Amino acid sequence: MSTSKRKRGVRSTQKAVADRHMEIRLAAEQGQGDLVNWICDRFGFGLRTARRDLQAIQKGDPTWWKKNIVSMRGLVNGRSAPDGHMPERPELQEAIAGVVVLEKLTGGMLSIARRDASRAAKQTERLLNPADEANVRQLRRFIQLRHQPTRITEQQTEAFARIVEAHLKGQAVSISYSTIDEVARPDAAPGKARKAAPARLVGPVCLFHAKRSWYLLGKVLDGKSKGELRQFKLARIERTATSTTAFKAPTDFELDTHLRGAWELFSKDANRDQQLKVVVEFDKLFSKNIVETMWHSTQTTEALPDGGVRFTATVNGYDEILWWILQMGSHARVISPPELQALVARELEATRRLYA
Predict the structure, then answer these.
(1) CATH topology assigned to domain 276-354
(2) Among candidates 92, 146, 101, 93, which has minimal Cα distance to 120?
(3) Where are the beta strands (DSSP E) in the chain?
(4) How far apart are CA 263 and CA 4, in angstroms?
(5) Which burial class, exposed, middle or buried, applies to 189 when counting CB atoms under 10 A from its CB (0-12, 13-18, 19+)?
(6) Which residue of 5, 34, 120, 229 lies most exposed, with the fewest beta carbons within 10 A?
(7) pLDDT band for position 300 (50/70/90)?
(8) Does the pLDDT at position 231 exceed 80?
């Protein structure tokens, strides 16, 4: 073989390798998790040759490798191995959780994190064998989740991403936050610019979704509320910026423990540990629904002679349980305490005046 022919052969081989490596990179960037098996299936290689290709890519561009392989997220079996190989395939039940349920959640309360969640579902689905793929297709139609509608805006999505980034880096966030009064208050004069929301330095402790909204639970690191744990509704965060202030969230924090005294999420009372016993009687029409539903961790129920039920729970504030009682209308009657009776009566009278 002539020298020129040999050179053309080398160039042709080098181009083929470069094209193959480019295709492998693209597959990784699109969420392909088990790269070794994918390379074997795509190009007909053995495991050794596939791993050799990945080693060459890693050596040639370590920055890309770190971004797309080492830091790969959302895989059902955890992070990929250093060579991009995931030897374990999920069981069918894992596939249900990873593909069907996760996929459906991305349309509801997890929609703010849709990109990562959808990627995880796709990666899981690629690891299934043909029989399991058919089962998952069937379960997609069979398992249905009805979500509470959640308003998701670009501002909330950005706040969510910044807060998650800060938590992973062990940093606080600076947020501009408007209270409900500041949001609702009209401008003093037409055309007058609304006063900017004050900036607060917050250490992110927990992100959670409840009652149709996303919330940040964080430790306030400045101002009059310094040191307090506060809840911030993402919809009211006007601006979010990462901070150089270090903050490490407690590893033993449990949201349920933190909210154990609340009816659902909040209590405006200064003493979060106070024990307020609430007794409400429901008529026969509503009794079955009250008994079969877990409304609060402290609840107890007692059947009444007329077919109704007496409901008892212990909370640390009346604000949220007040609105729960009001939505039951004439089917609920507060027995005690007198303070809650008065609050219900006051709201009902105010409502009556609206229609007088």
Answers:
(1) Alpha-Beta Plaits (3.30.70)
(2) 101
(3) 171-177, 199-210, 213-220, 229-233, 237-246, 276-282, 300-303, 309-315, 332-336
(4) 82
(5) exposed
(6) 5
(7) very high
(8) yes
Whether omega before 337 lies within 30 degrees of 0, making that bond cis, reads: yes
- Are the C-beta atoms of 282 and 308 separated by less than 8 Å? yes
Mean pLDDT over residues 302-323, rounded? 94
In what order do the strands lie in the sheet containing 199-210? Answer: 229-233, 213-220, 199-210, 171-177, 237-246
How many Cα neighbours within 13 Å face the side chain of 339? 7
Of 18-22, 259-263, 292-296, which range is least confident?
259-263
Query: Does residue 351 surpass a pLDDT of 90?
Result: yes
Give the pLDDT band of residue 103 (cuts 50, 70, 90). low
Which of 47-56, 63-72, 230-239 has the highest mean predicted lDDT (pLDDT)? Answer: 230-239
How large is the angle between the packed helices 338-354 and 319-326, nearest 10 degrees?
50
Going by C-beta distance under 8 Å and a sequence separation of 6 or more, which residues neighbour residue 16? none
Q: Do domains 154-184+196-258 and 276-354 have the same CATH topology?
A: no
Question: Taking 60 as the threshold, does the pLDDT of residue 11 lie above it?
Answer: no
The DSSP bridge partners found for residue 206 are 217
Q: What is the third-level CATH fold of 154-184+196-258?
A: SH3 type barrels. (2.30.30)
- Contact by Cβ (8 Å): 229, 202: no
Domain ranges across the chain: 92-142, 154-184+196-258, 276-354
CB 45 within 8 A of CB 39: yes
Helix locations, 143-245, DSSP H: 154-169, 180-184
What DSSP element (H or E) covers 270?
none
pTM of the entire structure? 0.62
Query: Do the bridges between strand 276-282 and strand 229-233 make them parallel or antiparallel, or are there none, so unpaired?
Result: unpaired
| Span 240-250, pLDDT tens digits | 998 999 999 98
CB 287 within 8 A of CB 309: yes
In this structure, how many other beta carbons lie within 10 angstroms of the beta carbon of residue 344? Answer: 17
- Three-class SS of residue 241? strand
Q: How far apart are CA 21 and CA 5, in angstroms?
A: 24
